[in-house]
UniProtKB/TrEMBL annotation:
<dbReference type="GO" id="GO:0004069">
    <property type="term" value="F:L-aspartate:2-oxoglutarate aminotransferase activity"/>
</dbReference>
<dbReference type="GO" id="GO:0030170">
    <property type="term" value="F:pyridoxal phosphate binding"/>
</dbReference>
<dbReference type="InterPro" id="IPR004839">
    <property type="entry name" value="Aminotransferase_I/II_large"/>
</dbReference>
<keyword id="KW-0032">Aminotransferase</keyword>
<keyword id="KW-0808">Transferase</keyword>
<dbReference type="InterPro" id="IPR015424">
    <property type="entry name" value="PyrdxlP-dep_Trfase"/>
</dbReference>
<comment type="similarity">
    <text>Belongs to the class-I pyridoxal-phosphate-dependent aminotransferase family.</text>
</comment>
<dbReference type="InterPro" id="IPR050596">
    <property type="entry name" value="AspAT/PAT-like"/>
</dbReference>
<protein>
    <recommendedName>
        <fullName>aspartate transaminase</fullName>
        <ecNumber>2.6.1.1</ecNumber>
    </recommendedName>
</protein>
<dbReference type="InterPro" id="IPR015421">
    <property type="entry name" value="PyrdxlP-dep_Trfase_major"/>
</dbReference>
<dbReference type="Pfam" id="PF00155">
    <property type="entry name" value="Aminotran_1_2"/>
</dbReference>
<feature type="domain" description="Aminotransferase class I/classII large">
    <location>
        <begin position="31"/>
        <end position="382"/>
    </location>
</feature>
<keyword id="KW-0663">Pyridoxal phosphate</keyword>
<dbReference type="InterPro" id="IPR015422">
    <property type="entry name" value="PyrdxlP-dep_Trfase_small"/>
</dbReference>
<dbReference type="GO" id="GO:0006520">
    <property type="term" value="P:amino acid metabolic process"/>
</dbReference>
Length: 388
């Protein structure tokens, strides 16, 4: 077979490779604590599940509109209004099978040889993978230059050229757990006014996982940028719906027909029952989110203090999401060696920093979407490993 060259430029998501290796060890009788995947360990709220069951019972079994059923898109606009006091046109909302299609379609809309796309590193790996796949030039801004792993708005603005087409922002960030507050977002938004040729892709999928009662500085709150704004959001993290494959995104008006064609050419539509579940989630109570954040706050404290107590390990305090991204080079190991030993000697599955960017060889990612007992045991196991 003679394959297309661009397939060689396509990357993957290493967290799933870590999971596969850990599961193989488990199958051989080795105990394993899973702190690799970014998946809340809570159940989908009952009223959301019941809405999906009702949709099936009511006969919603067939194809629906490629951009999402009207009721679901309207529910998204109600949620945006309630959360950010912003009115948006439901025609600019597209319902997606998860968050990845928004990443992929946005980069496909702008990426081609000669184009530049600015993105964070470390970052969710699909971003750089898709940039490379399109043949466009990857222009990273390195979060590891900051002790708290936050982006610098002035640094981002300095990277913009006349070839820049898309700027990618992830806040709160996966994998670092860093959170950039409104004051810095204000600086960035003000600077972006000078570059009308740059479209912004704001990944806000962790907007409901922010600590210390801080507010989410959504790009919805900058009306002067809204005509060149893409917002990636969804249900996976906030409502523990990772397996439902349900996401939504907001698009510039002129991009909507193009992205709708990409949807039709790739997935046809998102299944109807999941969309009715999504409506129930957005219109329903936030009790499950609030309860989840109480648990995540306790776990954040546990893992932050525990990691910093390990010899040679340094970890900044996560401001959002449910990840810790410690620097482990002080142990005498880089991140890849640390992860390999943690899995095989300590029975703890975590992800090396290089899964999220080339500059992150000294780091590893811990997901604290696990019970406090498992986190405590994982830290104890790694402490014993480091004492050998």
């Amino acid at each position: 077979m003679k394959l297309a060259k661009n397939l060689e430029r396509l990357g993957t998501e290493s967290a799933f490779s870590v999971l596969a290796e850990a599961k193989a060890l488990e199958a051989k009788g080795n105990p394993m604590i899973h702190l690799g995947l970014g998946q809340p360990d809570f159940k989908t709220p009952k009223h959301v599940v019941e809405a999906a069951k009702k949709a099936l019972d009511d006969g919603h079994h067939g194809y629906v509109m490629s951009n999402g059923i009207l009721e679901c898109r309207q529910a998204v606009t109600r949620w945006i209004k309630k959360r950010y006091s912003v009115d948006v046109d439901f025609e600019r909302i597209l319902i997606m099978p998860g968050g990845k299609p928004t990443m992929s379609y946005a980069i496909q809309c702008f990426g081609e040889p000669g184009a530049e796309i600015i993105h964070p590193t470390p970052a969710f790996p699909i971003y750089e993978s898709m940039i490379n796949y399109t043949g466009s030039t990857s222009v990273p801004y390195d979060l590891t230059e900051d002790k708290d792993l936050k982006f610098n708005p002035e640094k981002i603005l300095s990277l913009i050229t006349d070839k820049t087409r898309l700027l990618i922002l992830i806040n709160p960030n996966n994998p670092t757990g860093s959170f950039v507050e409104k004051a810095d977002i204000d600086v960035l938004a003000e600077g972006l006014k000078k570059y009308p040729h740059v479209t912004i892709l704001s990944d806000e999928i962790y907007s409901r996982q922010i600590f210390d009662n801080k507010e989410m500085p959504s790009f919805f709150n900058y009306p002067e940028l809204r005509e060149r704004l893409i917002v990636l959001e969804g249900w996976s993290k906030a409502y523990s719906m990772t397996g439902w494959r349900l996401g939504w995104s907001f698009w510039p008006k002129e991009l909507v027909p193009h992205v709708n064609k990409l949807l039709i050419n790739s997935v046809s539509c998102v299944n109807a029952a999941a969309q009715f579940a999504g409506i129930a989630a957005l219109d329903g109570p936030d009790d499950s989110i609030n309860e989840m954040m109480v648990k995540f706050t306790e776990r954040r404290k546990l893992i932050h203090e525990g990691l910093n107590s390990l010899p040679g390990v340094e970890c900044s305090l996560p401001g959002g999401a449910f990840y810790a991204f410690p620097k482990v080079i002080g142990t005498g190991m880089d991140g890849s060696v640390f992860c390999k030993r943690a899995m095989h000697e300590a029975g703890v599955a975590i992800v090396p920093g290089t899964a999220f960017g080339k500059t992150c060889q000294d780091y590893v990612r811990f997901s604290f979407a696990a019970s406090q007992d498992n986190i405590s045991q994982a830290l104890e196991n790694i402490k014993k490993m480091l004492s050998k």
